[in-house]
Amino acid sequence: LTPAGADRGPASVERRIGGGAAVVGADASLAHALDAGTGGTTDGEPLAYRAVTGENEQDLGNDLDALSVRALDEGEELAGGDVLPEGGYAALGAALADGIEIRLDTPIRRIEWGADGVRLIAAGGAIDGDAAVCTLPLGVLRAGAVTFDPPLPAKTGDAVRALGVGVLDKVALRFPEAFWDPEAHALGLVDDGRETFVSFVSMLPSTGRPILVGLVAGAAARACERWTDAAIVAAAMTARRTMHG
Fold it and tell me: Could you give the angle at which helices 30-38 and 46-60 cross, rounded to 10 degrees?
């Protein structure tokens, strides 16, 4: 993996995905870069290559042909591993909210900002403050659901219009009992591109309950969102049977 602060350009990518002879341009897709560097195989194993692509698709929430080569190993500079908080994610929110006034059901329609502070115009009146941290989703910003006065700087507006949002959906399956390794935290299926679900997180070690959470990303996730719940569960179960017989 690329160390923190290391070059993330095409030459660096080439060295890390197989040392292929082809050097890809800075605007190449991640799919093209992987194909150029590996020839569609990893150590002569096409399925091993598929495992690499599948991992990147889930990490980034999109198909590799829709991602920039610069996205490879994005986030790897952050120290630490992946963990599940005991008791669920609610504990994180509760700790952050300790000592802070929280107002629910208060949609903000307009944000007036300047050197003297900010004023948030909500349905129930105005809220004044020294500053505001805006964490609105990208889709809300693009839709113009909140008006900024004065408008956001051109640089920020350009970024809002240029950025994309990936899709990573989760489907939780609870079984009568666990039929998989009770100590496994994650189970993956190296497929030939036809399976929808290729990765599952086991909740058994953290909750003691026989629950598997299936992950589906990119175009497969967008397709699943048009299916019925029964069809989604059937697809997840097909993957499970492929993995466990």
Answer: 160
Amino acid at 234: A
Place of tokens 């590996």: 38
Q: What is the pLDDT along the chain (245 residues), one digit of tens a residue?
A: 223 333 444 444 444 444 444 455 667 887 777 776 555 544 555 656 666 677 778 888 888 888 887 777 677 778 887 777 777 888 888 889 999 988 888 899 999 999 999 999 998 889 999 999 999 999 899 999 999 999 999 999 999 988 888 899 999 999 999 999 999 988 887 766 666 888 899 999 888 999 999 999 988 899 999 999 999 999 999 988 888 87
Answer for the pair 195, 242: CB distance below 8 angstroms, yes or no: yes
Q: Decide if 33 contacts 72 (C-beta within 8 A).
A: yes
Decide: residue 200, CB within 10 A, 0-12 exposed, 13-18 middle, 19+ buried: buried
- Structural contact between residues 111 and 118, judged by C-beta atoms closer than 8 angstroms: yes
Give the Å distances, CA to CA, from 32 to 1, 28, 43, 47, 139: 19, 6, 18, 17, 28
Distance CA 214, CA 234 (A): 12
User: 134 with 170: CB under 8 angstroms?
Assistant: no
